[in-house]
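new request in #modeling-help
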Amino acid sequence: MKLWKSWVIATKDFNIFLKKKRILYTLIILPLLISVGLPVMLSSMDNPIEIITLLDAFSYFYIILAIIQSSTLASYSILGEKIEQSLEPLLATPITDGELLLGKTISSFLPCIGVIYVCSLIFMVLSDAVTYNTLGYLFFPNLKMAFILLLAVPLSSILSIQLNVIISARVNDVRTANQLGLLLEIPFIGVYILLVTNIATLNVINVLAIIAALILTDLAFFYLNKSTFQRDNILTKWK
Amino acid sequence: MIEARNLTRKFGDLTAVDNLTFHIKPGEVFGFLGPNGAGKTTTMRILTGLISKTEGEVRIAGYDVSDESDSLKIRKIVGLLPENVGLYDDLTAYRNLDFYGKLYECSRIERKENIAHFLKLLGLWDKRDVRVGNFSKGMKQKLAIARALIHDPEILFLDEPTANLDPESSKTVRDFILDLKEEKKTIFLNTHNLDEAQRICDKIGIFNTKLMAMGTPQELEESVWSNKTVIELEEVTDTILEALNNLPLSNITTSNNKLIIDVSDPQKDNPILVDAIIGAGGRIQYVTRLSPTLEDAYLKIVRRDQ
């Protein structure tokens, strides 16, 4: 596998993303608003238990954000090729299916992870700034957030991208693909609601359990995608 | 250069390509003619290693298309112009070509030189920094041709290169293909345009799931009928027709004041015909050979199958 070819495909996609306002909005404005807005919300609270509950829930929210971001990028990246009918000339070049899929994964994964890391840093700094007086210590950085950012966020991003590959094989509209991709959010939002309402708590064990579930689902989707993302299927079965 | 033996592709119960066998020599321009849905694009996709075959053998420049490592080598020496141009509307013409140049493993210098060369040749150099989304259909088609050539391939596969283009753009594209023919590129041309095939192709295959006929344009034309002589008279009378019917001729048709007669040996038969007509009091104005066209050949061959 020639990794540089995947990088060529990814950088081409980056150039296209920069020209699409909807992508830029979802990619930058939405996480930025959330990362600044959530600490602002916390600044008016003075109950340490409530603050900790919400900080845990907001930390977890970055997993959901990774799904939203990656789904948007992947639907443009993969389905965009299908809509512009550029898959045939692309597949006619000396690239392997694996190089193409890796390129598409990089183009959806890297901007998403990059933006989430920058925004989560802003969130952590602002949250610490507004909660330090009430809590008496710096809530961030902590082990849970480290696991979320370093493992759960990348794994959920990859899961969202893989789901979009399957969706792209079956639909012909970016918005539909995006909406279907966001169905993946439902179980994660369910967990988020449990966290916000304090029915469940976020501890390291729970985070590791989520990570384990993500790894298993990612592997299952990987094997499913191996047959979906084959040139023969792409050109003859993707409708 | 391109060799297919008993090539078959099935989609479930549907056979898209049935037992296709042909051989194209280096530097030859092969026209692949057939109605819509005949399986031409499927054949081209198999030949370029894009999709798999069900049965048979295909070799491109000696490489086996069904072998994965050979398939990569094939794609390096092949240029493809698909039916749908599939360019990136959000990128400029230059960036589109540069992207493909990288994937075809051209060096930076090669890319720079080839992009400039083809964009200038196809009249798009001034538009190199314009987003492709703003291009006309003809401009996109020319850019897609430049893309197919960016890595200087030995073999070109062109799927309907002039379809839906205005006459001027069609001519530019056709002239460009003729230039490529001069450069001795091997070209596999899918087309509906019989005039285009006749002017460009060295060899033509008429295809409708199966290969129904193959030969040079002239061979195919002559396969329709061997020889017909058209004799235009001042007036076709019953006496003339009676005189001709007494000759051992297979078929005589009349149209206005013209007689169209099947002849087996024009040099021997035509003087006999002329003598018979004059003997019956006919006044001959013109004697000409009726030449069949590629269209006649194509329609006859395709309809024969239906």
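bot summary: The interface with chain A takes residues 11, 45, 48, 50-52, 72-73, 75-76, 78, 80, 82, 84-91, 95, 99-100, 102-105, 144, 147-148 of chain B (CB under 8 Å).
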